[in-house]
Structures are given as structure tokens and as C-alpha cells.
Design goal:
Layout (H helix, E strand, L loop, with lengths): L9 H11 L1 E3 L10 H4 L7 E2 L5 E2 L1 H11 L3 E7 L2 E6 L3 H11 L8 H12 L2 E2 H7 L7 H14 L4 E6 L13 E5 L1 H5 L10 H15 L5 H8 L1
Antiparallel strand pairs: 1-5, 2-3, 4-5, 6-8, 7-8
Helix pairs in contact: 1-3, 4-9, 9-10
């Protein structure tokens, strides 16, 4: 990754996402190309002696996503990350072209229909509404959600946290899921390029900011 100053705040991270366009949250397989590697040491995950923990980077996700300048979901090799609104139409265009369309009557289609009918739902509510309530159903359902996010059919609108008796948020939080069309409108997803043109635009851009990355590494980010 091209050398740059470490990130110390959610505002700086938001500016970085808008600048470079694509940013995986955690390890991407390309050294230095993740929010986790770009933030200052004080913003990384730490466990306290009493068992508590703090992770500023994790807490920044919600405010960054709700600002509306980027899109968040499991987009990069089934791992979460950010895409700027500027690059989203090209990414959406390419992924929709190379991803199978959910067939009518399929589980993927049922999940999307449920989500569209409700506007947005946290993962566990969507899972229950789709009947994935039995033993070992959580991981199976998560697989469908990840596949739909990789195809740009589902994105994360926000993160919802439970509260303790003092009204304080705790835990890792739940993803509030929706569709990109619901969140941004259909026009924000339109692209004037062909899928092939979108791919080459994104590839060339990533190569320019990741000069040491191989073609196969960049392709794994985009595929």
C-alpha cells in the first residue's frame, strides 16, 4: 500500500475511504490494504485485564456508514469493507453482471423479498422471518446473506447494539440490513459503463494505489 499517515479518528477514516474508493475492514490478503492496518495502534483491538475490551475502529463503522458517503458490506472475498459512493455504481454494475440472479422461489429470493417488504431488518430478525430457526441454522443463513452481499443485493444500513440497565451500549452489535436501492435509491446504482469497462476502471484504480499488489491479488478483491 502506498505510504500514508496512520488514521486516528473516524473522520480521517471516512476521508480515506472517499479518497481511495475501496477499503477492506480487516486483512485483505494485500499487505497494508485494510482499515485495521491503517489505523493508529491506539485504535486497534485491545483486551483489558478485567476481561473487557475496546476497539475504536469497530465503533467507527456505524457513524461512517450512516453518514452516507460509502457503502458497507461483505464485498471483498466474503469479508467486510467499505466502498465510496463514487465507485459504488461501477462495483454494483460489475458484481451484478458476474453474480447469478436469485431465481424466483429460491431461498435467496425469499430473503430478498422479506427484506424488501420490511425495508430494513437486523440479521437475527431477518433470519427468524425466513424460518432459519432450527439447530445450526445461523451459519447456514449467514452463508446466504454473505452471497447476497457479494452480489450487491444486500448492504448494511447501520449497526444496532443492545443496552445494559444503565442505557449503555454493549457487545459486538447487529448489522441492520437493507437493499442498496432502498438505502440510496435506484439512480445511485446506475452506471453508464459496461460491466467489462467497470472492471477495468476499478482494476486500474486499485493498481494505481496498490503498486506492489499482483494482478491476481487485485482480481480477488474485485471478483
Amino acid at each position: 500500500m502506498m505510504r500514508r499517515e496512520e488514521v486516528h479518528s473516524e473522520i480521517q477514516l471516512m476521508e480515506l475511504i472517499r479518497e481511495i474508493g475501496f477499503l477492506p475492514l480487516l486483512d485483505s490478503g494485500i499487505r497494508g490494504f485494510s482499515a485495521e492496518e491503517m489505523v493508529d495502534d491506539d485504535c486497534r483491538y485491545v483486551v483489558f485485564p478485567d476481561g473487557g475490551w475496546d476497539w475504536p475502529l469497530w465503533k467507527w463503522k456505524g457513524p461512517i456508514v450512516t453518514e452516507g458517503y460509502c457503502v458497507y458490506g461483505k464485498f471483498f472475498n466474503k469479508k467486510a469493507g467499505f466502498i465510496s459512493r463514487e465507485w459504488w455504481p461501477d462495483f454494483y454494475n460489475y458484481r451484478r453482471h458476474v453474480t447469478s440472479i436469485p431465481q424466483e422461489g429460491s431461498i435467496d429470493d425469499a430473503i430478498l423479498m422479506t427484506l424488501r417488504e420490511n425495508g430494513s431488518m437486523i440479521t437475527r430478525e431477518l433470519r427468524a422471518a425466513c424460518g432459519f430457526t432450527g439447530s445450526k441454522m445461523r451459519s447456514k443463513f449467514d452463508g446466504y446473506i454473505t452471497r447476497l452481499q457479494m452480489g450487491c443485493y444486500i448492504v448494511t444500513e447501520d449497526f444496532v447494539y443492545p443496552h445494559d440497565r444503565h442505557g449503555r451500549e454493549y457487545g459486538w452489535g447487529w448489522s441492520l440490513l437493507t437493499t442498496p436501492e432502498q438505502l440510496f435509491g435506484k439512480e445511485a446504482c446506475l452506471c453508464s459503463h459496461t460491466a467489462e469497462e467497470s472492471y477495468h476502471r476499478m482494476f486500474d484504480h486499485l493498481k494505481s494505489i496498490l503498486p506492489s499488489a499482483s494482478a491476481s491479488q487485485i482480481h480477488r478483491i474485485l471478483r
